[in-house]
Specification:
- The longest helix has 23 residues.
- The chain has 190 residues and is of the alpha+beta class.
- The protein is globular and about 50 Å long.
- It folds into two domains: 64 residues, Helix Hairpins (Orthogonal Bundle); 91 residues, 3-Layer(bab) Sandwich (minor pseudopilin epsh fold).
- The two termini are 30 Å apart.
- The protein is built from seven helices and three strands, in the order αααααβββαα.
């Protein structure tokens, strides 16, 4: 299977001022594209060549001989989800069924937000913060580098990239402000 960089669901400048066009040019146009290109090169002539992206992530996880394939496949998958979970004029509390589920499983939206921000800020170095569904219960998790909920038997609802390249142009080292901007202005709950 040949993978392509999926188009963004909005214009490159649509998330400004919370995520600049310059950030998207580097993050989407260079980082994400590199994961796709590297993956295509790494899987040529291997057992992974005919697999879906999800199948590659799961079957290459925790196997040192496939670390390059896993890292690029997982980061391609993570970024595919990341771009879809943002929208211009997004953010704030979700509505309806999702809000009810968050309130049931976390006690309140504010408690979810606190756990999510703690996970994002507590991820030492590069990684991700996630809202996931596992066995019918919502929870927050963090993963290092390219690891993701697929490898832990969970379904990602949202995933926030906390690698420095995701926020450094716009926020420098203020990861907390970046997390707040994502939750308050960018996240696409629907």
């Amino acid at each position: 299977m040949f993978f392509e960089l999926p188009p963004l669901p909005y214009e490159m400048n649509a998330l400004a001022p919370y995520m600049s066009e310059e950030t998207l040019e580097y993050h989407y146009g260079k980082h994400h594209k590199a994961y796709i290109d590297n993956l295509n090169n790494l899987i040529k002539g291997t057992k992974f060549e005919k697999m879906t992206l999800e199948e590659i992530v799961v079957s290459s996880a925790n196997q040192p001989e496939y670390a390059g394939i896993f890292n690029n496949a997982a980061q391609a998958w993570n970024h595919n989800l990341f771009w879809k979970t943002m929208t211009p004029n997004g953010g704030g509390k979700p509505k309806g069924e999702l809000l009810a589920k968050i309130e049931k499983d976390f006690g309140s939206y504010d408690k979810f937000r606190e756990q999510f921000k703690t996970a994002a800020l507590g991820q030492f170095g590069s990684g991700w913060a996630w809202l996931v569904d596992k066995d019918g219960k919502l929870s927050v998790m963090k993963t290092a580098n390219g690891d993701n909920p697929l490898t832990h038997g969970a379904t990602a609802i949202i995933g926030l990239d906390v690698w420095e390249h995701a926020y450094y142009i716009d926020y420098r080292n203020a990861r907390g402000t970046y997390v707040d901007s994502y939750l308050d202005h960018l996240v696409k709950w629907d």
